[in-house]
Amino acid sequence: MIGFMGTDIHGFIEVRNSYVDSSEPDDDEPFFRWHPAIPLDHVHNDRSYAAFGCLFGVRGRAFEPLAAQRGFPQDASRAVTRAYERERPDSHSPSWISWSELE
After folding, report:
1. Nearest 5°: CA angle at 11, between 77 and 100?
2. Using the 8-state DSSP alphabet, how is residue 13 labeled?
3. Is the separation of the CB atoms in 13 and 40 below 8 Å?
4. Using an 8 Å Cβ cutoff, are 57 and 29 in contact?
């Protein structure tokens, strides 16, 4: 018998504005950078291989992916970077997409 492991998307919705993130008190550039707004699993906590394929080219490749293999964003917030570093050993295919691309 052959078993298959499931694929999940882990990530955050981030916003870029002048909000000061007080959770990073040593931040030398608190303005006009990315801030974590909400983890994706608070918005959608299910698997959709069609969406995974359409967005990032992981599973379900019936579509030309919108944002495949972009890598981890270098300007991500510190909080999101720490979360990624914790999950990195069990992760693959980091990428990102902007709201304007989703629209």
Report:
1. 80
2. E
3. yes
4. no
